[in-house]
């Protein structure tokens, strides 16, 4: 079953990373759109520095879960606790300020801008000059632009997209756009990175590259990763713990091996005979 | 009290006429997703055609009957509107299929300027009369209850009745006919509609022709009231708040919106106007819509816009 | 051959971030400015100043302001005429009611008032989007039209809303000849253009473009839609207000509310669509096109008619103008929906390769 091999980061249990305490705790989240129940009473936690996967068949509510964490959707019931602070619903800006960043399933890149500008937009929380300084490029504004450009260039190096800096993102092939999406999230220097199907639509080499990037981020910066992914081999390989959703309900929670042998999970994916 | 009723009724009827113009907007938006700024210019163009042909046809064909002249003029004007619809689809819409909303909006603005100029080139730029036999005298209702009775303009009454029947006809058309269903499918999703075999181009020509028909009726009614002149195309600017208030995609919304704005304008002008210095009709409708939108950003009956990420 | 970037390597981010990174571009802009400042006043006659150059400069400024709101931030506004009017009448009031008010301050204060009104009418953009917003902005247009017509305090109690100014001077230098008016406008436009370009390439500019491209994603990376949209309205209205004041003071001299009617709003919108949404340079291209076109048609059509032996009256020219104008808009939208600015950058791309085909 293992067709994907990853270069960096050996299997999670043998490297020197210490998985810390619970950093993000989701309690009893229920979300409905009119009559459609997207999520029902979901609870799970995420520990610092770990790679947590969320899996499940299509329509299980995985993206909706991330959207609740980011403040895009407001759940009807339940709370989210981040570093000890509990919220009934999240405000997108607050979430970003707290250090939670994400990528999107359908790519939410800013199509009108080039790669550098997209990545720089991820730095906006750290840019503090006012309108007047910006309008006349006074010293502080110029220095700020250069400083953050230097930071963004590190990300460009890391993701190996130097040749595409000035290209409008709309013109890039899909795989590269996904990298820019990841880059923009990384530009926020997040503590928690929510990745929504980062490897969707990629071939084997592209998936290897993406796995490498994700694991490097987790290794080098200690960023906690929450990952929605369909490719089972990737999930089993790189995650520390897995949550399984089906039709908006949680049906499994544990290490990859535990989840792999869970009856409910198997029947959700393969169907049961009646 | 009698005066208030008069104002109210006057407002309702003006509102009905706004609805008629608004209907053209809603039709085109419903079926092609295009906000047709040129609707006002279409009203003017249709009215000009009607006015001039009703003059010219008797001269060309050498007869005297006004009724026959009007009927023929109407038919010719309608044909002209179908031709306009076809040309618009061919030269403009067909080429701008995948562009964003603002591009299409600007294109319809371009069509507005073009039709304005073209209409005046073809038909002349003076004030012309339309006379379809609508009675112009006033009538007095409920003379027993209120002193002097309530003044109601017969012409407005006939016009409102015509507008109402047209609206009902169109609603039924959309609901119960196959073409109506096809139009609604196209409005929802062009590509999906195409993929099940609905002929997009033909549908668009049909829709713009129906909108042209609505414009013609509106043109005849307004033209007979105000005379056919350039300012007729500005009626569209009056109808815009109606369209937005009702929600861009709703035919009943256009009617209710029209009635609300018609009444609101008249009542506010009469009762609020003097304190504010008069002439508040020009912005009342718009400011009203602004406040409604703050509470319901999609209008009264429009579809809610949900952003998916 | 001429337009090669060979050998122009950037060794610092600062150099890479310049507005005109290519030397040939810098030279061209420098030359253009030099010509504008020195050559034009020597060569142009009064008609050229009055009918072409000054309207072009002032309307470019207004188009620039509108482009920031519509092109960079994606908020469609059909009420620009109203903000120009606020700028004009506010500047007028400051000028007339305060003894010894310098012209430049009156203009800037006019812009500031336009900013306040702009932010007020920008608040709906926080809830309302797209076409609904466009129509809501018309409320500003019609309300402001009415205000300056009916509330006589604003117009110093003139009955028809018409007012006038005279004896303009810039810190002692009188601005009363076409040349001085032109140079005054040129100076203001250049300063604002530089400021605008700086804004759109800084982080506020990226915030605006993020809101335009995908506002939900923008919120997730920490951009506040409220701040971004309202600053867009504020900056845009300021620029448009100053342009309105300039239009009234320098170009018209005496004016009434009709000078800033909905036709003006549409005219500005056409300028930025034809010139190129989201492009500073495009605002100038669009303004030039729209200013020059009617003049061109006015001369060309009767002459063309005379050649063919057809007598074209002024009324016919007016109608033909409408038709050609409308037709050209549609043509442009079909051929190049991103406007003249895109045509220009495509031409430059080809020029980079010239004389080689690829």
Structure description:
With 274 residues, chain A is of the alpha/beta class. Chain A has helices at residues 62-70, 92-98, 115-121, 131-135, 139-159, 174-187, 204-221, 232-238, 256-260, 263-270, and strands at 22-33, 36-47, 51-55, 77-82, 85-87, 100-102, 192-196, 224-228, 241-246, 249-254. In chain A, α3 packs parallel to α6 (174-187). Residues 1-14 of chain A have low confidence and may be disordered. Chain B has one domain (2-230). Chain C is mainly alpha-helical and 358 residues long. Chain C has helices at 13-16, 23-43, 46-72, 80-97, 103-122, 130-150, 178-200, 203-220, 225-252, 262-275, 280-308, 314-335, 339-353, and strands at 163-164, 169-170, 173-174, 254-255. The longest helix of chain C is centred in the last third of the chain and has 29 residues, at 280-308.
Set out the fold topology:
The complex is a heterotrimer of chains A (274), B (309) and C (358).
Chain A lengths: L21 E12 L2 E12 L3 E5 L6 H9 L6 E6 L2 E3 L4 H7 L1 E3 L12 H7 L9 H5 L3 H21 L14 H14 L4 E5 L7 H18 L2 E5 L3 H7 L2 E6 L2 E6 L1 H5 L2 H8 L4
Parallel strand pairs in A: 3-8, 3-9, 6-7, 7-8
Antiparallel strand pairs in A: 1-2, 1-4, 4-5, 9-10
Chain B lengths: L1 H31 L6 H23 L4 H27 L8 H23 L14 E4 L8 E4 H23 L1 H11 L1 H6 L4 H27 L8 H12 L4 H21 L1 H4 L4 H15 L14
Antiparallel strand pairs in B: 1-2
Helix pairs in contact in B: 1-5, 1-6, 1-8, 1-9, 1-10, 2-3, 2-4, 2-8, 3-8, 5-6, 5-8, 6-8, 9-10, 9-12, 10-12
Chain C lengths: L12 H4 L6 H21 L2 H27 L7 H18 L5 H20 L7 H21 L12 E2 L4 E2 L2 E2 L3 H23 L2 H18 L4 H28 L1 E2 L6 H14 L4 H29 L5 H22 L3 H15 L5
Antiparallel strand pairs in C: 1-4, 2-3
Nearest-integer average pLDDT of chain B: 82
Give the name of the CATH architecture of chain C: Orthogonal Bundle
For the termini of chain C, the CA-CA separation is 13 Å
- What is the 3D shape of chain C? globular
Strand composition percent of chain C? under 5%
Total number of beta strands of chain B: 2
Chain pair with largest interface? B-C, 50 and 49 residues
Which consecutive residue ranges of chain B, at least 5 long each, have pLDDT under 50? none
Oligomer state equals heterotrimer
Major beta sheet summary of chain B: 2 strands, antiparallel
Mean pLDDT of chain C: 87
Order of neighbouring strands in the sheet with most strands of chain B: 1-2
Structural class of chain C: mainly alpha
Number of helices of chain C: 13
Q: Give the % helix of chain B.
A: over 70%
What's the helical proportion of residues of chain C?
Answer: over 70%
Tell me, what's the shape of chain B?
A: globular
Number of domains of chain B: 1
């Amino acid at each position: 079953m293992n067709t994907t091999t990853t270069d960096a980061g050996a299997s999670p249990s043998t490297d020197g990373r210490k998985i810390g305490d619970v950093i993000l705790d989701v309690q009893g989240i229920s979300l409905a759109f009119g009559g459609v129940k997207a999520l029902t009473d979901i609870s799970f936690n995420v520990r610092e520095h770990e790679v947590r996967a969320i899996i499940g068949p299509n329509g299980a509510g995985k993206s909706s879960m991330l959207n609740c964490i980011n403040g895009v959707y407001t759940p009807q019931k339940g709370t989210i606790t981040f570093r000890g602070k509990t919220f009934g619903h999240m405000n997108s800006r607050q979430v970003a300020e707290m250090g939670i960043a994400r990528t999107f399933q359908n790519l939410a890149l800013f199509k009108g801008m080039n790669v550098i500008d997209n990545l720089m937009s991820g730095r906006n929380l750290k840019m503090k000059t006012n309108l007047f300084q910006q309008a006349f490029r006074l010293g502080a504004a110029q220095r700020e632009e250069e400083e953050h450009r230097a930071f963004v260039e590190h990300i460009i190096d890391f993701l190996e997209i130097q040749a595409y800096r000035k290209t409008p993102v709309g013109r890039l092939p899909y795989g590269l756009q996904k990298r820019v999406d990841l880059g923009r999230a990384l530009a926020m220097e997040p503590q928690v990175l929510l990745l929504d199907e980062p490897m969707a639509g990629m071939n084997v080499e592209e998936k290897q590259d993406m796995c490498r990037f994700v694991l490097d981020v987790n290794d080098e910066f200690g960023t906690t990763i929450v990952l929605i992914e369909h490719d089972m081999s990737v999930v089993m390989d790189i995650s520390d713990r897995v949550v399984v959703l089906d039709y908006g309900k949680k049906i499994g929670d544990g290490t990859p091996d535990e989840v792999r042998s869970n009856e409910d999970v198997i029947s959700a994916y393969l169907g049961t005979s009646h | 009290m009698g005066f208030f009723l008069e104002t109210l009724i006057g407002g309702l009827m003006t509102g009905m006429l706004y609805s008629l113009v608004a209907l053209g907007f809603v039709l085109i938006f419903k079926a092609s997703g295009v906000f047709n700024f040129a609707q006002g210019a279409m009203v003017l163009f249709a009215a000009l055609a009607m006015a001039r042909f009703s003059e010219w046809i008797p001269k060309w064909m050498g007869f005297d009957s006004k009724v026959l002249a009007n009927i023929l003029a109407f038919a010719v004007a309608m044909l002209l509107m179908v031709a306009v619809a076809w040309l618009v689809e061919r030269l403009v819409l067909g080429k701008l299929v995948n562009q964003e909303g603002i591009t299409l909006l600007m294109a319809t603005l371009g069509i507005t300027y073009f039709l304005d100029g073209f209409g005046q080139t073809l038909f002349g730029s003076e004030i012309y009369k339309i006379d379809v036999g609508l009675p112009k005298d006033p009538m007095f209702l409920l003379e027993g209850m209120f002193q002097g009775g309530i003044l109601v303009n017969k012409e407005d009454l006939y016009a409102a009745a015509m507008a109402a029947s047209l609206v009902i006809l169109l609603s039924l058309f959309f609901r119960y006919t196959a073409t109506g269903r096809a139009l609604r499918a196209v409005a929802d999703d062009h590509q999906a509609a195409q993929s099940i075999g609905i002929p997009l181009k033909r549908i668009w020509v049909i829709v713009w022709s129906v909108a042209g028909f609505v414009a013609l009726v509106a043109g005849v009614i307004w033209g007979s009231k105000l005379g056919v002149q350039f300012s007729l195309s500005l009626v569209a600017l009056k109808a815009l708040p109606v369209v937005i208030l009702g929600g861009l995609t709703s035919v009943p919304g256009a009617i209710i919106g029209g009635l609300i704005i018609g009444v609101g304008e008249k009542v506010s002008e009469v009762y609020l106007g003097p304190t504010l210095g008069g002439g508040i009709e020009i912005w009342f409708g718009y400011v009203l819509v602004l406040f409604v939108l703050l509470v319901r950003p999609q209008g009264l009956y429009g579809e809610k816009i949900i952003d998916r990420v | 051959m001429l337009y090669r970037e060979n050998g122009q390597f950037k060794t610092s981010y600062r150099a890479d971030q310049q507005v005109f990174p290519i030397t040939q571009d810098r030279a061209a802009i420098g030359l253009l400015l030099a010509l504008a400042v020195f050559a034009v006043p020597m060569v142009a006659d009064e008609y050229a100043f009055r009918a072409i150059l000054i309207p072009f400069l002032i309307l470019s400024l207004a188009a620039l302001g509108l482009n920031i709101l519509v092109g960079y931030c994606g908020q469609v506004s059909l009420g620009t005429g109203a903000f120009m009017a606020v700028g004009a009448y506010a500047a007028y009031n400051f000028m007339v009611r305060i003894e010894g008010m310098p012209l430049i301050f009156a203009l800037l204060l006019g812009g500031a008032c336009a900013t306040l009104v702009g932010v007020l009418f920008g608040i709906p953009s926080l809830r309302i989007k797209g076409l609904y917003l466009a129509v809501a902005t018309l409320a500003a247009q019609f309300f402001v039209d009415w205000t300056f017509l009916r509330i006589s305090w604003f117009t110093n109690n003139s009955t028809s809303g018409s007012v006038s100014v005279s004896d303009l001077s810039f810190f002692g230098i009188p601005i009363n000849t076409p040349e001085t008016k032109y140079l005054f406008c040129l100076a203001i436009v250049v300063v604002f253009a530089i400021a605008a370009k700086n804004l759109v390439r800084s982080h506020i500019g990226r915030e605006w473009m993020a809101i335009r491209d995908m506002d939900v994603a923008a919120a997730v990376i920490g951009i506040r839609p409220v701040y971004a949209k309202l600053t867009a309205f504020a900056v845009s209205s300021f620029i448009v207000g100053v342009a309105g004041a300039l239009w009234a003071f320098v170009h018209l001299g005496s004016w009434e509310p009709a000078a800033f009617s909905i036709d003006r709003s549409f005219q500005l919108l056409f300028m930025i669509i034809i010139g190129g949404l989201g492009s500073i340079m495009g605002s100038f291209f669009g303004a030039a096109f729209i200013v020059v076109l009617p003049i061109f048609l006015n001369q060309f059509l009767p002459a063309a008619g005379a050649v063919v032996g057809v007598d074209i009256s002024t009324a016919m020219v007016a109608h033909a103008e409408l038709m050609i104008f409308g037709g050209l808009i549609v043509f442009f939208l079909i051929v190049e929906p991103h406007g003249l600015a895109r045509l220009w950058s495509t031409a430059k791309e080809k020029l980079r390769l010239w004389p080689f085909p690829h």
